[in-house]
Design a protein that fits this description.
The protein is mainly α and about 100 residues long. The protein has 3 helices and no strands. Helix 1 packs across helix 2 and helix 2 runs antiparallel to helix 3. The radius of gyration is 15 Å and the shape is globular.
Length: about 100
């Protein structure tokens, strides 16, 4: 039973990848900036998850859902935009402990 069943699946994907991007930027490899390779690696991870779900029959009648991948990309892009605004408005570097 999904306790968040009232939330659209695509919104869940976007939120999950927003949080993953935040964790990747601030907690994993914080000394490296959020440049092209971090979001690209995270998107590749999302694509891999979709392919594996399709391969094991997790989807039950649905093909690998391209809209899930777009939702993942939306979450990553959303984080990138929010982080850029926070850095600009508060003049902080989110990596390296926010200093």
């Amino acid at each position: 039973m999904d306790p968040f069943g009232f939330i659209n699946d695509k919104v869940k994907h976007a939120i999950a990848f927003f949080v993953l991007a935040l964790l990747l930027d601030c907690c994993a490899f914080p000394s490296y900036r959020f440049t092209w390779y971090k979001p690209l690696g995270l998107l590749a991870f999302g694509v891999l998850l979709e392919v594996l779900q399709d391969m094991i029959g997790f989807r039950k009648g649905s093909s690998g859902d391209f809209t899930d991948i777009l939702s993942n990309l939306a979450g990553i892009t959303g984080y990138f935009l929010v982080a850029a605004m926070v850095k600009r408005v508060y003049r902080v570097d989110l990596a390296n402990g926010g200093g």
